Amino acid sequence: MRSHSLNHRTPQASSALRMTPGRVRFVLGAIGVLFLALVGRAVYLQVVQQDFLVNQGEARFRREMTLPANRGLITDRNGEPLAISTPVQTIWASPADMEPVPPAKLRELARLLEMSPQELDSKLADRKREFVYIKRQINPEIADKVMALGIPGIAKQQEYRRFYPAGEIVSHIIGFTGVDGKGQEGVELSREKMLSGVNGRRTVLKDRRGQIIEDVAAIQPPHDGQTVALSIDYRIQYLAYRELKNAVEENKARAGGVVVLDAHTGELLALANYPSFNPNNRVGVTPEMMRNRAVIDLFEPGSTMKPLSIAIALEEGKANRHTVLDTHSYTIGPALIRDVSPSPSLDIEGVIKRSSNVGASKLALMVPPKDFWSFYDSLGFGHAPNTGFPGEASGRLRDYKSWRPIEQATMSFGYGVSVSLLQMARAYTIFANDGVLLPMSLYKSPTPTSGRRVLNSKAAEDMRQVLVANSGEGGGAQQGRVIGYSIGGKSGTARKLEGRTYVADKHRALFMGFAPGKSSRLIVAVMIDEPSAGKYYGGAVAAPVFSRIAGGALRVLNVQPDEPFNNALVPESTPVPVDY
């Protein structure tokens, strides 16, 4: 019975499992359609959509990395580094690649980067962003600790931070860079292309943790910036800054500036301003502290202009060194020209020693206005000095065609014309080079540019001797004398103009000079703005600064003394001639 029963069910099961030809064709057709769909999709993705998909993949995992170029050095003329770049690290994030991060790790990240948790959260808030800076230019050790946290989407990259070893001593010359390493002021700005170099490129694939998997293109190496060598001598720069700072503080002045030129080449050996600032830490720095006064501030130079206005009268043959002038007060229209310390008559040396407005103006008025203007113009007044500093002031020298006689008279003793300290220092190169005006340079050059004759050698030599005599008995440059060296110079005290009125109690104390006087090596220009400690005459305030800077610089340069070492300096109690 059992066997019979089994045999009876088998035919029924076989017929149930048997497929008809139509059913087979349907199944095969369905499989074929699915296969064709898969092939079509593959072709569509591999051919039609290939570029799109590759770009999408690369957008998620391919990264263009910048390989920063090392910014070039800035050095003084002897190779002393004044601006260098040190390697630092920058932490950045790709919020789009960040997985959920434990709050404890985020708090630790914020602590390491000296940020508040709220500040960190705000940077990471947009989860669609693929790049955001978290903290720039941090210590490499801190960056290593950040990466040790193992937070996905957090990465680091190397950058360079600018460091200025001399700090505030050269800040107005060197300037500084921003956080992106671009020059913002001074030489850093004016020589940006030379210093910056060219960044390199590296194209890589990264995983979701920010780790580099492989390079996908040839690396383009960076090309570092060039070294810029200045004409500045850091030893003299330090000396100039120290003495200027002491003078400003001692005289309770508003500010001051110093320019030191090489009398042979016109190269800038020092340029100092006070107040100053530390370019390594600019927190709390004000525009007043950053002002490069010696280059951009304009002022009326007062009596320091007299040697120049007298020189053109000598060249024109209107007078000679021994000419005696009537120096009684006189009028030009409604204006009275007078001396604060009058004398009935003075020769050229006396005009300089007594700082006579009457004598200087009478000599100037002997010269035709066009010739007088041409001489001032040839000295560079009214033109930018072209030393390479950004923002150089041109000054103001009005066209002679619009002058009135009183204007030519006042310009002879330094009013009615505006100049920078840099321009005045350059103008005095004619007395150290037989009438040749030297071009100024901030950059060291193996072949200095030749100068341009603006005054005949006889007139230049006569004025040089007069200025050297001015440092002797009865002269206004006595306080500028240097032990062991002769000097020549002229002091000046200029009232400040506010609006259209000259203020009686605000002055600039000035001194322009050269040393040694007999064969000059240096030209030093000093300006002290608004001294208020009791003294304000240039001969009392600015001349001693010249003495200390010139004396120290001559010794630094190993210039041989040209006078005995018992050429005593004038005591500060000695009356100083008025130098308005």
UniProtKB/TrEMBL annotation:
One of its GO terms (biological process) is regulation of cell shape. InterPro entries: Beta-lactam/transpept, Beta-lactam/transpept-like, FtsI_transpept, PBP_dimer, PBP_dimer_sf, PCN-bd_Tpept. It holds the Pfam family PBP_dimer. Its EC number is 3.4.16.4. One of its GO terms (cellular component) is plasma membrane. The active site is at residue 303. Pathway: Cell wall biogenesis; peptidoglycan biosynthesis. Catalyzes cross-linking of the peptidoglycan cell wall at the division septum. Belongs to the transpeptidase family. FtsI subfamily. HAMAP family: FtsI_transpept. This is Peptidoglycan D,D-transpeptidase FtsI. It comes from Paludibacterium paludis. The gene is ftsI.
